[in-house]
Amino acid sequence: MRPSGLIGILALIAAICSWETQAMAADGLITIKSSFGPADTMKRLETEVTAKGLTVFARVDHAAGAAAVGLPLRPTDLIVFGNAKGGTPLMQQAQTIGIDLPLKALVWQDEQGVTWLSYNDPAYLAGRHGVGEPAKAAITAMTGALHAIATKATAP
Q: What is the pTM of this model?
């Protein structure tokens, strides 16, 4: 292997390792640490979602629901968003992906008071439902848009 190739591989590994300190992924769930509290993170998230031309279909405040029945829950807020132009090509390939669409993102606070933003990886959803090659462009676009939205919502 050439030294330049090795340097490139090492740079890639370093970049991935530094990103991992801010984000984690497990079973198709991407979770990014936020630099803001739960309310500000959700406000920034919703602003970015609408700025990308997506529709906010619903918000679910799980902590408020828990409080309504006398149960404690740290801030846990879900936003449901998307558009038919992005989701329909996926459902044309595999209608069952409709169970995972529209897209969702969860803003939540852990035991240490750290705020996180979690969302489903579109590529994972495509694999889960057997979405094929014809929807690859839609998956790629969705992945890029979600990454951009999440980064803007969580980074200073």
A: 0.83
